[in-house]
Amino acid sequence: MEQYQLAIESNLAPIVGQQVTLDDGNEAIVAARIDLLEARADLLECDLVAKGRIGSTAVGLSYLGNGYFATDRQSAPLVASAGLRAFVTSHDAALTYTCAPPGSGYRIGVDRDLDGHLDGDEVDAGSDPADPNSTP
Ligand SMILES: [Ca+2]
To answer: pTM surpassing 0.85?
Structure first.
């Protein structure tokens, strides 16, 4: 009830702020939750992002809808949701899926300083992904 009222007061859907973490051992437990977050994002109730790591490399993704994510590296192809889950499940990896407020997914998922250079590209190039004055 409190969550419902908060959603009305803020005009945000109740799904906003909900999250779940997928790792290499829990897909059976969290799969339905990820399905729900994607379904709500497909309804434009939230912007779904996924942040975490593959091995020791930080990764960020922004859900584009219809089962596809964009990554935070310009040269990387779009990633299908099912393939992403399969990859995380079969590697030393973890991803936290979060339903972010509509309009915030690009910033939160892939370009936190909104300078047009994606977070992963910035890290790879040695610039600061949190500083728009630091670019590759
Ligand atoms: Ca950036």
So the answer is: yes
